[in-house]
Automatic annotation (TrEMBL):
InterPro entries: NAD(P)-bd_dom_sf, NmrA-like, NmrA/Isoflavone_reductase-like, PCBER-like
PANTHER family: CIPA-LIKE, PUTATIVE (AFU_ORTHOLOGUE AFUA_1G12460)-RELATED (PTHR47706:SF1), NMRA-LIKE FAMILY PROTEIN (PTHR47706)
Pfam families to which the protein is assigned, alphabetical: NmrA
SUPFAM superfamilies: NAD(P)-binding Rossmann-fold domains
Record keywords, A-Z: NADP, Oxidoreductase
Record domain NmrA-like: where: 5-221
Keyword Cell cycle in annotation: no
Protein name: NmrA-like domain-containing protein
Amino acid sequence: MSEIKSVAIAGASGTLGPHVLKALIDAKFQVKILTRSKKPGEFDAGVDVVEVDFTSVESLTAALKGIDAVVSTVAGMAIKTQTVLIDAATVAGVKRFIPSEYGSVTTNPKVEAFPLYENVFQIKHHLQEKANSGQLTWTVLACGAFLEFLFAAGAAGLLDFADRKATLFDEGDNRLSSTSLATAGKAIAGILKNSEATKNRVVKVSEVILTQNQLLKIAEGLRPEDKWEISKVAASAVLKEGLVEFSAGDFSFPVISKIIKGTGFAGETYGSAYDETDNELLEVKELTEEDLKKIVAEKLA
């Protein structure tokens, strides 16, 4: 039986947050949402929503009294500000903290010095210091790239299904684990239901391991009459370009995307495919070939 009964969520209105909220409610946890400002109708009337100052340990500590676990799903620049939330959780007596990470290669030491990744490593180090002193336990969920992002419209995903274009990283055979937003939410609930087995460690889940050539083959099988425009690029070159542009002060999404793709789409270089997972523990079902065909068919329509 899990010792976690009550959970606070930071970032519940973001990309992953709503899926975490639903999963926690479905799993019968008592849920409290931490927000900068309440917006009428943003959440169901039965959900406990509390306004907090995320820069204040005192404000957050008051909101976290009686809470067993904190799940953070904050994004972007807010990642590095989680230290305040962690400090408040420690003071309030919170037992478990799940930081906002949910990445593909974010646990690989090779990326620690890269922009975007350095903040998540700082948060992990901060959590480990709390764990070493017995003040708090933590779990990091590594779930690979979100499935919805990999199938995003246009050139943002693994393939550009709409325009029938494929920019293959290296030779197109680099493997990448992926999990849907809804399943990631359920995995977080599973972590808290199995609090002892998931204590102070990275938990990995993967609904499917994908390659660009695999998806291209499925697409060509479904629509053999379509002609694909195929090009190739070295993942290392994309990463290098992104790092140079970022260091020159360009923090735009295209530059950030280059760093993410240059690492996440690089296959074994940074360990983006999880051959060993905690799927069974967290009751994560893997997608079948037929599941993938259905997803690709929808994108080709």
